[in-house]
Specification:
CATH topology of the largest domain: Rossmann fold
Mean pLDDT: 92
Number of strands: 20
Low-confidence stretches: none
Radius of gyration: 25 Å
Bound molecules: adenosine-5'-triphosphate
Largest sheet: 6 strands, mixed
Oligomer: single chain
CATH architecture of the largest domain: 3-Layer(aba) Sandwich
Distance between the termini: 31 Å
CATH class of the largest domain: Alpha Beta
């Protein structure tokens, strides 16, 4: 991966709040990168520093080998697409898209060609003569995208780009954004608090917690090998069972000793938690060695899958299981049923804070 953007030791405080705390990361040319994390973790502040709207207290921002830390926002080959879209209401769609290039002095056939190309890319050519007030939310969003892409930046920054759209449109646009990124070859840096959005679109994700990188990985690694309880809890759903690390596995009071793929990373005698994804919990209608007796205390039908809450003796929190609705057992599953459950050690993780 050739590096396009390098963020090196960047920090930023607002009074006593350390919004960004010594962050290092590298984004490749042609990469779709997501900054993900709960509200207030510093995503927007980091994005604004990369855009040049905010100066870091410490650290450097390097783009294509050039230190741009002190370079003004409008002199950076970077574009930022605002969440509000910030379209000019009195201009047509084509006028909005042309504006940035006109400001650079472009005119005539070249300008027309570039605008037509950008509108084509976001499939808005038939609406070129409309005003923003005559567009739907999704269409406005496409104009904002075309306006950002028309300048052919090396890096496009998008702050919660799909935040204003409804769920269905958001899912469509996730795929669309990914296509646009691949077609243009421009590196995209997206800020989102929506983990599903980040998992769907990004090549790599940096999950932030309180101004720091909690984990930086490809979506699958983040989901399958979270490095801490925070990451496991933020990405998808996870069951946690507290216990003590032994040589044989995690000893969970009242349940037994359970193996896990990363057991060896933890010191014997320390407290930790066993983490199991709901879809890894298997249901059995008979007792087998190592299976745990459970009682179905809740059941939700999701169409493709069923979500079950399983009460286990001596535990206040139910274990959550997610099974395909087409499962042979599924037709018999109902609230109040007694059954057994287990999970494979190769899909269990031991996690600490
Ligand atoms: P959200 O998803 O809610 O937008 P975020 O992850 O983008 O959150 P930031 O907006 O970067 O988080 O804020 C990080 C921290 O810095 C927060 O505690 C926020 O209150 C604080 N902060 C951000 N901008 C300012 C500012 N201009 N003045 C004071 N505090 C600020």
């Amino acid at each position: 991966m050739s590096a396009l953007l390098e963020v090196a030791g960047v920090s930023k405080s607002f009074g006593p709040v350390k919004a960004v705390d010594n962050i290092d990361l590298t984004i490749g040319a042609n990469e779709f990168f997501a900054l993900l994390g709960p509200s207030g973790c510093g995503k927007t502040t980091l994005l604004r520093m990369i855009a040049g709207f905010e100066m870091p207290d410490q650290g450097r921002i390097i783009l294509a080998g050039q230190d741009i830390t002190g370079v003004k926002a409008n002199k950076r080959p970077i574009n930022l697409m605002f969440q509000s879209y910030a379209l000019f209401p009195h201009m047509t769609v084509a006028g909005n898209v042309a504006y940035g290039l006109e400001m650079e002095g472009m005119r005539g056939a070249e300008l027309d060609r570039r605008v037509a190309e950008a509108l084509d890319l976001v499939q808005l050519s038939p609406l070129a003569k409309r005003k923003p007030a005559q567009l739907s939310g999704g269409q406005k969003q496409r104009v904002a995208l075309a306006r950002a892409l028309v300048k052919r930046p090396q890096l496009l920054l998008l702050d919660e780009p799909l935040g204003a759209l409804d769920k269905k449109l958001r899912e469509q646009m996730q795929i669309e954004l990914k296509r646009l990124q691949q077609e243009t070859g421009i590196a995209f840096l997206v800020v989102t608090h929506d983990q599903e959005e980040a998992l769907t679109m990004a090549d790599r994700i940096a999950l932030l917690k309180a101004g720091r990188v909690a984990q930086l990985d490809a979506p699958r690694a983040l989901y399958e090998r979270p490095s801490s309880r925070f990451v496991a809890d933020f990405i998808g759903q996870m069951n946690f069972l507290a216990g003590e690390v032994t040589a044989a596995g995690l000893e969970i009071p009242g349940l037994g000793c359970f193996g896990a793929v990363n057991l060896a990373d933890h010191a014997i005698g320390t407290r930790a938690e066993l983490a199991i994804r709901p879809e890894r919990v298997e249901l059995l209608d008979g007792a087998v060695s190592g299976a745990i007796a459970a009682h179905v205390s809740g059941l939700a039908y999701l169409g493709q899958d069923l979500i079950l809450h399983l009460s286990i003796a001596g535990r206040a929190q139910p274990l959550v299981a997610r099974v395909p609705a087409a499962n042979p057992l599924s037709t018999r599953l109902r609230q109040g049923l007694d059954l057994w459950c287990r999970w494979p050690a190769e899909h269990s993780l031991v996690l600490s804070e």
